[in-house]
Design brief:
two-stranded antiparallel sheet; about 50% helix; elongated
C-alpha cells in the first residue's frame, strides 16, 4: 500500500532504473536457469556416451582387473579364440590354403584335440616361466597349424621362435603330414641361443633351430621355402628387409605369413610387388583383455 501511495511522486528516471534493475534480475534468473539446463543436458549427454563406450569396453576393463592379480605371463599372451573367430579363421585358411572350409575346420579342431602336444607345451612353459598360473592356449597359432596341414610344405621356416610354442605347433602339423605321406621339415631362426627350448621329443624329429640374425641366416639358407612365417623383430623396416631376404628362396606356389600385419603393411606391399594375393585375419581373443593381433598372408594368385 505504501509503495502505491508514493509511486506517483517517484521521479521517472528512478522508476526507469527500478524497472531496468527488475528486468536485469529476471534476465539473470533466466540465464541461470538456461545454464543449469544446459549443464544437466551436457551431463546426460556425456553419461549416455559413456554408456555406449562401456558397452564395448567394460568387460575388457573387468578382465584387466582380474588379470592384474593373477600370476600369468606378462607378454606373448596365451588365449583361445572365440567360436565365431574360429569360424572366420576356417574361411581364411580355406582361401589361403586352397582347401574346403570343412577341411580347415577339421585342421583347427585337430590341434585343439591334440592332448600330447598340449601336455608337452604346458609342462615346458610351466618349467620356463616363473609365473605359476599360465595355461597354454594357441590363439592365431591355430591358423598357422591349419595352413601347415593344408599346404603340406616340404620346408617351413619361422623367424622369431622364443620358447618354441609355435615351433612345436608347426612340427605337430608336419608330423601329421608325414603320417599321410607328405614329409616336411621345420627350421626355426632366432638370434637368442636359448630360443626353441621346447622343441624336443617327437617335435625335434621334424624340426631344428638355426641361431643368428634371421636376415643373415636366410642369406645362407640352402633350401627352397614352401611356407615362411615372420614373427621376429616387429619393426616395419626389419620385417620388410626380412621378406626381401627370403624372397629369392621362395619355392613356386609358396605362402608367406606375417605376424605383424595388424600394425604394418609390409607384407601387403611385398605381396603386391611379387604378384601375390594378400589377405588378413584379425584375432578375437576369448576371455582376455588383449585385443589380439592376426595373420597376414601373401599367397599365390590363383585363377
Amino acid at each position: 500500500m505504501l509503495l502505491d501511495l508514493i509511486k506517483p511522486f517517484v521521479p521517472k528516471p528512478i522508476k526507469s532504473a527500478i524497472r531496468r534493475r527488475r528486468q536485469e534480475r529476471r534476465d539473470a534468473r533466466l540465464r541461470q536457469t538456461a545454464l543449469e539446463q544446459a549443464e544437466r543436458e551436457e551431463r546426460e549427454r556425456l553419461a549416455a556416451r559413456r554408456k555406449i563406450a562401456d558397452y564395448y569396453f567394460a568387460k575388457k576393463l573387468q578382465m584387466v582387473e582380474e588379470w592384474i592379480v593373477r600370476d600369468t605371463e606378462n607378454s606373448n599372451f596365451y588365449y583361445d579364440l572365440t567360436d565365431l573367430n574360429k569360424h572366420q579363421l576356417a574361411h581364411f585358411v580355406s582361401v589361403v590354403g586352397n582347401v574346403t572350409v570343412e577341411d580347415a575346420v577339421g585342421y583347427i579342431g585337430e590341434l585343439a584335440a591334440d592332448q600330447p602336444l598340449f601336455s608337452h607345451l604346458q609342462a615346458g612353459v610351466t618349467a620356463s616361466y616363473p609365473q605359476k598360473e599360465i595355461v597354454v592356449a594357441y590363439g592365431r597359432r591355430l591358423g598357422w597349424y591349419a595352413l601347415a596341414r593344408a599346404l603340406k610344405p616340404k620346408v617351413l621356416v619361422e623367424t622369431g621362435v622364443d620358447h618354441g610354442v609355435g615351433a612345436c605347433v608347426l612340427c605337430a602339423a608336419l608330423l601329421r603330414n608325414f603320417a599321410e605321406g607328405r614329409p616336411g621339415r621345420y627350421f626355426g631362426l632366432d638370434l637368442n641361443p636359448s630360443a626353441g627350448r621346447l622343441l624336443t621329443g617327437p617335435y625335434a624329429t621334424v624340426g631344428e633351430m638355426i641361431y643368428g640374425d634371421s636376415i643373415e641366416s636366410l642369406g645362407k639358407f640352402p633350401h627352397a621355402i614352401d611356407l615362411f612365417i615372420n614373427d621376429s623383430d616387429h619393426s616395419e623396416d626389419f620385417e620388410s628387409r626380412e621378406y626381401e631376404a627370403m624372397a629369392p628362396l621362395l619355392a613356386p606356389g609358396a605362402t608367406v605369413l606375417g605376424d605383424n600385419s595388424h600394425t604394418t603393411d609390409a607384407l601387403g606391399r611385398f605381396a603386391r610387388s611379387h604378384g601375390m594375393n594378400f589377405l588378413f585375419f584379425r584375432e578375437q581373443p576369448k576371455a582376455h583383455w588383449y585385443f589380439g593381433a592376426g595373420i597376414g598372408a601373401a599367397y599365390p594368385a590363383r585363377r
